[in-house]
Amino acid sequence: MAGRIKNVTDIRLDVEFAEDFRTQKIMRKFGAEGALGLIFLMCYCAKHYPSDSGYFPVNFDEEDLLFACKVQLDRTDYVQMLLDLEIIGKNKDRFYICEWDEMQPWASEARARSEKAKKAAAARWKKEGKQKDKKKKVPSEQPEIKPDAHAMPEHESGNTENMPEADSGNAPSPTPTLYVNTPYSPPEGEEVVEAFCELLPDLPKPEVLTDPLRRKIRKCKCEGGPPEKGIEWWRWYFSLVKEYPRLLGEGESGWKASIPWLVEPGNMAKVLGGGFQSREQMEVNEFTSSFSQGMSEEEYARKLAVGDG
User: Fold this and answer.
1) pTM for this one?
2) CB atoms within 10 A of CB 261
3) Which residues, in sequence order, are CB contacts of 7 under 8 Å at separation 6+?
């Protein structure tokens, strides 16, 4: 069994979960504890075995299943009901959650994302290592060549000397910027765009992850929010954007924020600094405005005190 993958922190729960006939049957027999057991089981699988198609280890027995569901360990009838309703299955003594990959696509692809990030980091290490070694190589005792005042300047294909070291300020840093060890975004922007499309599906989706956009994502400083400064910070940031109706196109102009706009430092500072009214603030302001117009302070306070309106 592969080691635990640590880039999954949530699961998807269908809004019809409580209305599903299987959930209804479980609740009639086991109460709310039975429905919560299903959610606890999915959380357990996403935390420990997200990319194993819902399968638990061979030694994961019935008691372990009840423990993961946080149901009394003597309720074997609970496990049997999950099997009968095809919520879970058993294949060659291994329990599994049915249709896991379809229900939890983000979790199921966790290992692939992790491997992709490792390969990208390894390639960057190799590239930056070569650049570092190249910079260390200094030509030994070359004869001084006096410039010919009448010679034409040569282009890159000529034999002119390289630019001095001081002019290579745009060369990449020899220190790798792997996001799990630094306060910056992931080195590759695909995960950030994927999180943007998942959490903000109604906003304009980028057709192509361009190099300028990729560079902006890499340069963004992940300030505030969760202590994790990788993809989890970006997911938190996009969740914060969901709280501001104006960014979602609910303003008078209908304008919607795009991911290039959201990663601009000035715009990001506005979002993080409370530069936009949240949905709750707008509702409070609307309530205050509708009841305060044309009233004295005493009348308005009196209406609030008696709960009028």
Assistant:
1) 0.42
2) 16
3) 110, 113, 114, 230, 231, 232
Q: Which long-range contacts (CB under 8 A, 24 or more apart) does 26-30 make?
A: 26/81, 26/82, 26/85, 29/81, 30/71, 30/75, 30/78, 30/81
Q: 50-78, pLDDT tens digit by residue?
A: 888 889 998 899 999 999 999 988 888 99
Expressed as residue numbers, the domain containing 234 is: 173-276
How many CB atoms within 10 Å of residue 264?
12
**Residues 188, 94 share a domain:** no
Nearest to 43 by CA among 90, 94, 113, 107: 107
What would the two tokens of residue 300 be?
């308005």
Closest CA to 201 of 239, 167, 251, 231: 239
Mean pLDDT score, 104-122:
80
Overall number of domains in the chain:
2
